[in-house]
Structures are given as structure tokens and as C-alpha cells.
Amino acid sequence: MASPLPSPPPRVRVAAYVIRRHPSPALLVFDHVDFPEAGTQVPAGGVAPGEDPERAVLREVAEETGLRGARVVRRIAVDGRPHPETGQPRLTTYLLLDAPPDGPAEWEHRVRGDGVDAGMRFACRFVPLPLAHPLADAQDAHLSRVGPGWGATGGAVG
To answer: Cβ distance 152 to 122 under 8 Å?
Structure first.
């Protein structure tokens, strides 16, 4: 009898809780303009070989939202949930970042470069905390570790 195939190694990822503190706490989120069914998300993505999570999260925030000047505060959690659609293993490090104090409350960003997201349009915005609705893929699961009661309380973010 053949032994089962070993499971692939997890995809190493980061996810960003970018918080703007003034005038009141708000979280940076975005929606795919051309794929609204993807749901509201925080910036997240893969970590390159040899790249540390702090560098990766700043790169992902800049690539997906165009936001520059965010500052990494600390790591919050490591989440081992598999991909919700493929079931493939993932290991996601969630990090807390402080947003620059100035800048718009909402904007549209088109991803540049030659990566898999190139050309995608994201509608970015800061939403008040606590969240009124959960994020796609339960990305808000660790928000309560940042601020008490900051996790979502309702249905999908619209």
C-alpha cells in the first residue's frame, strides 16, 4: 500500500492592520473594484524567501494600497488557517502598523509592476473601529489583540 503524499509546505504570508489613530481609530481596508465578490480585506500577501515579515508587510501595503510612510509597531499573531477556497496550507503573520497621520480617508489604487496583482484596482479606505462587519477570510480575527472590542460584530463589510 502506498503511503499518502506529504502535504505541501504552508505558503508564508503577512497581513497588515494599518491603524490611523486620529481623529478616532480606523483600519485600512480595500475592496477589489473589478471583483467585489472577494470581499473587504486588509493588505496581505506572500513573503519572499529570505524576506522578514516586517519588510514584507510594508511592501504589501505599498503594492496593494499605494500607502507609504506606515510604521510597523509589532507582530500580533501567527495564524495557520488554510486557504478558504483551495484548502492549501498557509501561515500568516498579522502585524500592527501605524498609518501616517495625513492623507486621504479613501482613494482608488491601481497595482503596478508585473506581479499577479498587476493592473488590479483597489478601492481603499479607513473604516472606523470597532468594525461594524467582519472582513473577508476572517481577517479581523486578531483585531481584539490590538484594541478591546475592535473585532467585527455583523455580516460582510459592504
So the answer is: no
How far apart are alpha carbons 134 and 154 in whole angstroms?
Answer: 6
Nearest to 59 by CA among 50, 48, 49, 74: 48
Q: How far is CA 67 from CA 34, 38, 122, 156, in A?
A: 20, 21, 12, 24
Per run of 10 residues, the mean pLDDT along the chain (length 158 residues) is 70 96 94 93 95 97 95 96 86 97 93 82 96 93 92 51
CB 134 within 8 A of CB 157: yes
- Number of helices and strands in the chain (H, E): 1, 7
- Judge whether 123 and 87 are in contact, CB under 8 Å: no
Q: Is the dihedral of CA 136, 139, 144, 150 positive or negative?
A: negative
